[in-house]
Design brief:
With 478 residues, the chain is of the alpha/beta class. It has 15 helices and 23 strands. Helix 12 packs across helix 13.
């Protein structure tokens, strides 16, 4: 692509209108005649390498202040934003060729996006998905490392979706993706806010900063749908200026669930909007999933899909991997795998499961290393609120000592009467939970969900699939 075509409308330069080979913000990917964008990160500032990148063959560098590089520097006030614009232009603005639906919030994003994609696909609309578990183009599945991919990879993914004939893309939009301008020049037809609870405060300085990051999505959308059962969702609904609506499972709203019945095998409720109501029978248990389904149905209605087709698709959906997923045991107790890794999420899953637990509710959980340590005792408090017994263990310890993480967790149990055991090795902890389970008990394995790995010291990833480990543990009981 020619330089002037690439920067048209966003910058000017005195350089010749040469052919640009690629754009990048990664020093390792600089090649002859590329544009290198200087981005300041947490541990490295690309500005310090600008001159070296020109020596390696870059045609020009983009920077936020004068580096004394003459005509070969393009100065901008926000290099992350500029990089997003460049990447979008490089791929011919695929974001403008798709109907974009974004979901943000602390909990519920994965379930809502997956349900929306299922409904769209079931009604004949080829759809792409960008999410925590994986990325998808129609029925094709691609591995992902980030909830919101890095900028170049994100635009490349959208470009692939366009070329594959996708009409829609449904994506989880993380606070990181918004603050770091990873989504480039994307504009969303519909944006959803689920809730806001403590998470990522190792990155955001406080909850207000976290909220403002999430709020950014609602300045780049045509229509907003907010969960008014959440205080931040209620606040957001009052602050944003675009067309908007609220949804709820606890009160009347623009869209709400009524007559809710929860079972271990699923849930039923009346989806209500305006003066209309429709019975929904879903295979996904839990009040939080009723909220997720309410949001997904409301989105698809706004997208113009017939309500009967939407509900039929919902009723044929088996749920999302690692989200209140029942692991088959063939025993007289139940094992549920869930991604809950925040205080609010663990309280939601346990409150829901408690409603249909015949015996004891046993919760196994830990907390990740090199992450927000302040939420660790809060996780314990939340778990003890509904569980009858706790098994405290590791999650992804990363470069922290597992015992030190557990010590932080146990501080939240100092005033609790709920019995607990500490089994540091997560595999052994799962074996232990299976061993102590009795008839009618439900074991909730919280924190890993869809993940099939564990991150240990040195950031080493080892294979760790809790479905496999449960199967191994059951064999040891025989």
């Amino acid at each position: 692509m020619k330089l002037y075509e690439l920067i048209d409308g966003i910058a000017e330069t005195k350089l010749d209108n040469i052919e640009i080979s690629t754009v990048t913000d990664d020093t390792r990917k600089v090649v002859e005649d590329c544009i290198f964008v200087c981005v300041k990160g947490g541990s490295f500032d690309g500005h310090t390498a600008a001159a070296e990148m020109l020596e390696k063959g870059a045609a020009a560098v983009v920077c936020e202040h004068d580096l004394g590089l003459g005509d070969r520097q393009i100065i901008t006030d926000n290099s992350r934003k500029f990089y997003g614009q460049l990447c979008a232009a490089w791929f011919g603005h695929p974001e403008k060729k798709l109907k974009m639906i974004g979901v943000t919030g602390t909990n519920g994003k994965t379930t809502i996006t997956n349900v929306i994609k299922h409904i769209l696909m079931s009604t004949g609309h080829k759809t792409g998905l960008v999410g925590t578990i994986q990325n998808e183009i129609g029925d094709e599945v691609f591995h992902t490392n980030n909830t919101t991919p890095m900028t170049f990879e994100f635009m490349s993914l959208l470009d692939q979706m366009v070329k594959a004939g996708c009409e829609y893309v449904v994506m989880e939009v993380s606070s990181f993706g918004l603050v770091q301008n990873r989504i480039g020049t994307s504009w969303f037809d519909i944006a959803v806010f689920t809730n806001l609870t403590q998470d990522h405060l190792d990155y955001h300085k406080d909850m207000e900063d976290y909220y403002q990051a999430k709020k950014m999505l609602f300045s780049i959308c045509d229509y907003a749908l907010c969960n008014i059962d959440d205080e931040y969702g209620k606040r957001l609904l009052g602050e944003i200026k675009c067309e908007k609506a609220g949804f709820s499972v606890k009160q009347n709203a623009d869209c709400y669930a009524d007559g809710i019945k929860i079972r271990s095998t699923g849930s039923s409720f009346w989806f209500c909007y305006g003066d209309k109501s429709h019975l929904v029978k879903a295979r996904m248990p839990g009040l939080f999933n009723v909220s997720n389904l309410t949001a997904a149905i409301a989105v698809c209605l706004k997208a113009g899909l017939p309500v009967d087709d939407i509900i039929s698709a919902v009723e044929n959906y088996n749920g999302v991997k690692g989200r209140c997923e029942i692991i088959p045991t063939g025993r007289d107790f139940t094992v549920i795998c869930d991604y809950a890794h925040t205080p609010d999420a663990i309280e939601n899953i346990l409150r829901s499961v408690k409603e249909y637990t015949e015996g004891r509710l046993i919760c196994l959980f830990g907390c990740g290393g090199n992450r927000d340590a302040a939420k660790r005792p809060k996780m314990a408090v939340a778990a003890a609120k509904y569980a009858d017994r706790l098994v405290v263990t590791s999650d992804n310890p990363r470069n922290e000592e597992p015992e030190a993480i557990i010590k932080d967790i146990l501080a939240g149990l100092s005033d609790s009467s709920v019995p607990y055991d500490v089994v540091t090795d997560r595999r052994e902890a799962i074996y232990y939970a299976l061993k102590i389970a009795e008839k009618g008990d439900i074991i909730v394995l919280a924190g890993k969900g869809h993940e099939d790995y564990q991150i240990l010291a040195g950031m080493e990833h080892i294979h760790f699939d809790e479905r496999e480990i449960v199967a191994e543990g059951l064999k040891l009981l025989d």
